[in-house]
Amino acid sequence: MELSWDCKENTTYLECVMIHKEKGPIEIMLKENECHCKFPDYSLHEGVTFMVKVNSIQRPIPETLVYTNSGGKGTAAQNFSCFIYNANFMNCTWAKGQAAPDDVQYFLYIRDLKYRRERECPHYLEDSGTHVGCHLEDLSGLAYYNYFLVNGTSQRTGIQFFDSILYWKKIEIYSPPNNISVHCNVSHCLIQWEKPVTRHNLSNREFKYQLDIQRLKNKEHSGNQLIEVSGNWENKYNFPSPEPRAKHTVKIRTSDARIQRWGSWSQPVEFETPAKHQSWVSFLLMKRNPFIPRN
User: Fold this and answer.
1) Spatial distance between the Cα atoms of 23 and 17, rounded to a whole number of angstroms
2) Longest dimension (CA), the chain
3) Closest CA to 49 of 71, 17, 94, 85
4) What is the pLDDT of residues 60-86, one digit of tens each?
5) Residue 103 vs residues 120, 129, 149: alpha-carbon distances, Å
6) CA spacing 20 to 30 A to 267: which of 22, 66, 91, 109?
7) In sequence order, what are the residues at sequence separation of 6 or more whose Cβ sits closer than 8 angstroms to the Cβ of residue 284?
C-alpha cells in the first residue's frame, strides 16, 4: 500500500503513520524530500486512518486521510475461514452478510505477499446461486503469507469487502502420519511412524501426535488410552503390554507443536500375541472317593 502527497516545500521532518484498529499506529520514518511511503499489507475492511507529519521550514503541516470500506453496512461476507488439507488442497468458506440483498454475488481473490501474484477463485461453492466458498486444487502460487479479499456486487446497493491475511502454517490441517508399524516382544510393543506430508517441509520437532490405543474385547472397544507424544527424529512410543496380550488397535493423528489443531485419525493398526506364542496350562481335577482307603 502506497501513500503519496504533493511536497513543494523543503522539509526537516517526515513521518507516515497508519492507525489500524487491530494493530494500532504503524509508523514509517522517511528521508528528506520523499513524497510517498509504503506500508506492509494489513487487512483494511474495518477502515484505517493515514497521517503524514511534515515539518517544513516555515510551519508544521499535518495531513489526515481516512480510508473507509464503502458500501452498505452489514453487506460484506462474514464468518470467513480457510484451511489447507492433504498438503495440496484448500477450502475457503464464508456466509452471506446479514444486510446483503438477495442478488448479492461474492468473489474471492488471493494474492501472495512475496511475489505479488494474484488470482481469482477457480471453483466456487454455491448456496442458492450465491458464492459462499471456494475450492482450490493448485496451491503452487501460495506463499507463507497470503492476502484474501472477498468483494461483492449487487444491482441494489454497494457491497462492502472483507479481507484477511493468513499464514499457511496456521490454516493447514495435517494428515495422519505415514507408515505406522507395531513390533512387540514379551513385555512391550514398539509403535513407530513417519511424519505426514505437509504443504512445506517441516522438521520432526514441529509436530506432535496423539495415539489412541484400544483393547478389543468381543469386537468391542474398551480401555482406550489417549497418549500425546512430541515429534522427534525417531517418532516412536514404547507401549507396556506383557504377553499374553489381547488384540489391540492403535490410531494416530497429528497437530502442529505450537498450534493445537488435530487432523483426522489414521486407519487403526491391530496388534496382539501371535497364536503360536500363546500358551495354555490345563488342570485335571479329580475327586477322591472317601471309601477307598489310602495306601
Assistant:
1) 12
2) 133
3) 17
4) 677 888 999 999 999 999 999 999 999
5) 20, 9, 20
6) 91
7) none
